[in-house]
Write the structure tokens for this entry.
Amino acid sequence: MTTNTLSRRIIVGVDSSANAAHAAEWAARTATDRDGTPLHLVHALNQPHGTSMVDPAASVKAAHDAAAELLAQAFRTLRMRYPKLPITTQISELGAAEMLVALSRDAELVVTGTRGHGGFTGMLLGSVSHKTAAHAHCPVVVVREEPAEAARNEIVLGVEPDQDPAPIRFAFATAAQFGAGVTAIRAWTPQFAYGGYFMMTPAVDEQHRDVEQLLKTTREEFPKVQATTKFVNDNTVTALIDASDGARLVVIGAHHHHGPLSIGAGYVVQGLLSHAHTPVAVVPIG
């Protein structure tokens, strides 16, 4: 397998939970929409260094055997639904977040659920999905439970002032692959000024010009993608959660952490991963 092929893979974490199965299904469907991007199913054993078990070798073998059967079942299920999709599998002894972050160096996308079993235990808030979103070297999509059927073939994009271009380009490129439109949302909260006597609210025209300027280059790169802008006088998390209802995907940027995996994502990312109505794509910045 060439480096170029490796870099195009979609990585998805698999365990025995229904949530992981939903994430794998979403990843396979997305890989198919992306002209058959190879799908790589991975399972983390999270083997401890050293053990007090009476027969550690037998325990490790049993864990590997169970993981192999789990991956084989996931492979068979997806192969039946997507017979032409290239699918590979891998077992890792690392922890789930450590494994996904390591594999993200040579991937196009990492997909994970928000809760799981086995190697992905504790994948709910603040754990594996948050750590992966904060540290991965490629975009991460977090699928919450069973994604609702998208009422609109739409990608929702959060655009902040001085937005890095990476999330914008990811949203437009994904929309082009899905045949979807993009709705770029700028949210702001009125600011108190002069000792709290007056409220300062940025002019809509000013916000519009700023967002249009940020989107200009990417619009020209993807001229077939229909893009609209929306300005909301509200908290960013609330605005994006509301917009996610019925959309196919929400895209947000997050500054990349280079420190320990215990560091989590920012409050906007955490809020979306906790409450968005649709899968959330977190695109690394910096």
Observations:
- DSSP finds nine helices and twelve strands in the chain.
